[in-house]
């Protein structure tokens, strides 16, 4: 993965993280970096689900998971993050 591949991950991560936070509104004191990391982890999760469903892809280009699975993955990661945070706040 080159420099532009890394930039692409950051852009997709930011978009997925922002959209996940818009879809699941709530009080999350996250900055831009945390939102990007949320989206990147969601993208990885979405990519793994895509590989489990369709298998690996041949060649380059945008994977089938694309932004949709990245957003779904980011929503799941955000939900898990909120569950962990709420449990640690109570105890």
What's the average pLDDT?
A: 76
Shape: globular
Backbone structural class: mainly alpha
**What share of residues are in beta strands?**
under 5%
- What integer value in Å does the Rg equal? 14 Å
Task: Summarize the main sheet.
Answer: none
Q: Tally the beta strands.
A: 0
Oligomer: single chain
SSE pattern? HHH
Distance between the termini: 42 Å
**How many separate domains make up the residues?**
1
Outline the low-pLDDT stretches: none
Number of helical segments?
3
Helical fraction equals over 70%
Describe this structure in words.
By secondary structure, this protein is mainly alpha-helical. It has one domain. It has 3 helices and no strands. Helix 1 packs across helix 3. The radius of gyration is 14 Å and the shape is globular. It starts with a helix and ends with a helix. The relative contact order is 0.18. The mean pLDDT is 76.
């Amino acid at each position: 993965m080159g420099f532009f591949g890394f930039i692409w991950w950051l852009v997709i991560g930011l978009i997925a993280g922002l959209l996940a936070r818009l879809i699941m509104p709530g009080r999350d004191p996250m900055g831009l970096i945390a939102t990007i990391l949320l989206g990147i982890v969601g993208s990885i999760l979405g990519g793994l689900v895509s590989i489990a469903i369709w298998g690996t892809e041949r060649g380059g280009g945008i994977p089938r998971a694309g932004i949709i699975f990245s957003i779904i993955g980011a929503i799941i990661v955000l939900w898990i993050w909120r569950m962990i945070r709420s449990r640690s706040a109570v105890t």
